[in-house]
Each structure stands twice: as structure tokens, then as C-alpha cells.
Amino acid sequence: MSVAAALEHLVGLQAQATDQPYFGLWTRLANFAFQDLDRLVLQKDVVRCALLRSTLHLVTSRDALRLRPVLQPVQDRALAAAHGPRLAGLNLAEVAAATREILAERPLTYQELGERLRMRWPDRGGDVLANAARNVEALVQAPPALWGGGARVRVTLMSEWLDEPLGDEVEPGPLVMRYLAAFGPASVADIRAWSGLAGISEVVEALRPRLRVFKNEAGVELFDLPHAPRPEPDTPAPVRLLGGFDGLILGFADRSRFLDDAHRRHIATVNGIFHPLILIDGRVAGVWKLIVAKRAASVELTPFAPLQANHRSDLVREAEALLAAAAPDRPDRDVRLKPAQ
């Protein structure tokens, strides 16, 4: 599968940590090279923008244009939840118009955008004005952050950057069908958690005649596309290294299918930063970290429990392959397998 096809199949990858989607694609695709994604970003075929759950996602430009209108209610609700009292009396339509006028000149950082908007609303904080602009207007990162990062993030208007208008479809049904194609079987709660959209029960009910319906062990209905692949329970699941904020973790309200209760507190920090994770036999089995220095690079693996010998060797082999892809120019590369956490 191509990079663009994978991104569209997954409906994007969460990307506020700009390096993590590279790992998410590498672990899923054969022969993925990190520069393949850089090239698509530089060609404007792929962009970073606020979409699902009002979080920053890496998506194809086609998806950015067609999904942003569908997910506008998510941006509106997230803005109200985060800044409601500070928005009182502020005309958001006027903020959107001012944002379009200001960013038509050139891309700006969020701080610069907030300062420019504050010239018109001096009684408001620049941070809340910049956040309002981010949610009421479709913005993308430009110039983009590439592998290795370091560049200051600036934003501009999505339609200007891509030289195309936003789509006019706002019905969420097609988005739900795409979610099920990538993540089904899944419950209404799973779809709601993944998308951030309200009213999912009604959407799924309208789609029910087109779906297969199952029930899990607790009696919860799970929906899937009729002809979607559903592997047998004993299908081998190879060792994999997931990127941080991976769609597998954020795509479900019920994570019990791949995460033990005892390990829940280890997969994210208290402020919601999801770690890169180790999968063994299809279940979360530890965390990992890439460390890159001037001449050296290493992958640090921290399992949650002692590993079987075959899993240990498979995991080290997978980490070595990741190092070769992520840091091919570092002469000193090693894998560090730490004691179980």
C-alpha cells in the first residue's frame, strides 16, 4: 500500500508529536522510507491540521478538504469546552473573518496570530484568540514540520495552501463507514471516542441495514462492514512497534481487546501524552523510545513483564530495523532492552 493510501485507510494519524506518524506508517507498510512521507508533505499531498477529536492529524490533502466540514462540530465543541467563559460575548464569525484576512498575507505562528488578533480585541488574551482561530477556521501547518523537526510551526488557510475549496459534505455517515473499514468491529462508543462527534447512535442506526452486527462478551453491539476481513483468533500477530498516539490506542473507547487493566497507567502520562508502544501477540506489552544523538542512535525497550526468548529476539530485530530506517546516517546504533517495568 502507498503512504497516501495508508493514510486514507486509517483516516489519518494523530500528529501533535510530528515524528510519531513516521513510526505509525513504518510499522504498517512494507518498504516505507521516512523521506517518502517528507516528499508528500513538501508536495502538499499530505498536511497537518486539526480534525478528529479536535487534535492535530496528518492526512492527505484530499481528506483534509473533505473531512474538515464534517468535523466542524467537533472543533466548535472542543473550543467551548476549553475556553467557554473566556469566549463570552466574542463574535466567532468575526474572528474567523479576521483570521482569513490576516493569514492571507503570510503564514504565522499561533503566537503571532494571537497578537495580530489581539489588536482587534485588546480585551482578550492572545492565546484564546489563537485557539478560537484554530477551531473556527480550517488551518494547516505551513511550512510543514518534517522528519527530525526543529522548524517553527506556522499556520495558514487550508484552502489557500491547497488552492482548493473545502468540501460541502457535512453528513458523518461516510466517515463512520471509513472508520469501520479500518477499525471494525467496533461499538457506538468506540466510534464516538475516535471521532469526537456527538449523535453517533443515530448515525449508526441509519447505517445498520448496511452493516454486520456482532456482540462482544459483555453483550455490547459491535458493527462492521459486511465483507471486511475478520481474522481467526489464532491468526499470528507479529511483534510491532507502534508510534505514540497511535490510532489503535485512540481508535477505541474499549481498549480491553489489546490492553490489560494492569498496564493502563503505563501507556500515557498524566497530561495525556501517549507513549510509543510495544505489541506482542496483538496486545500492548511495553513502551519504547528512540534516542538520536549526533553520531549515535538507540531504541530503548521497556517491557511490562519478562519476555519469552522468541519474543525477545523478535522485538530486538524489529527495533534494529526501525533504527536502520529512522537513523541510517548514525554510525553507532544499538538496541537497549531494559528490565520489565
List the keywords.
3-stranded antiparallel beta sheet, 14 helices, 5-stranded mixed beta sheet, 12 strands, 17% strand, 341 residues, alpha+beta
Give an overview of the whole structure.
Helix content is 40%, strand content 17%. It is built from 14 helices and twelve strands. It has helices at residues 3-9, 20-26, 34-42, 61-70, 72-87, 92-103, 110-118, 126-136, 158-162, 173-183, 188-195, 200-207, 247-250, 309-326; strands spanning 13-14, 46-50, 56-60, 139-141, 155-157, 212-215, 221-224, 240-242, 277-280, 283-292, 296-303, 332-337. The strands form four sheets. The protein has a five-stranded mixed sheet, covered by helices on one side. A three-stranded antiparallel sheet has the order 1-3-2. Strands 4-5 form a two-stranded antiparallel sheet.
